[in-house]
Amino acid sequence: MIVLGIDPGTASTGYGVIKRLKPDKKLGSFECLEYGVIKTLPQHSPPERLKKLNNDLSRLIKKHQPELLVIEHLFFFKNLKTVIPVSQASGVILLTAAKNNLPVHGFTPPQVKLAIAGSGKAEKKDIQKKVKKIFKLKEIPKPDDAADALAIALSFFYYKK
Prior knowledge:
alpha/beta, Nucleotidyltransferase, domain 5, 21% strand
């Protein structure tokens, strides 16, 4: 099963594509197929940035043919200026998934932390170390948005019934 994980943002949207290799009662083993970020330029208008997000995400979906998309839900924002653009990016991501007939699952940051590190209050570095270990990577995925997206994708398997 191939899963696309998304850490939404307007300037930078993290993505991680993972594949479950051996399903079993212990969650099985996983392969990291690709990770990175979709970056947009600040000098572009919001509609142009959202269009780029849609286009790049559509290309990723076409390339990897995931069976579902897992997105990080908004949880808490201190800055109102960031919540609106992130909400807009999330909307474009959801629309792109719908246009590609992809089911969508979502988790909050504490749910992802609990699934990956065993604590909803885990530190970012703990999550990154676990992601590196689970996918047998040589180093922690960079940038942080990409590492987060891999953790978000992986969370689906911990919560899947």
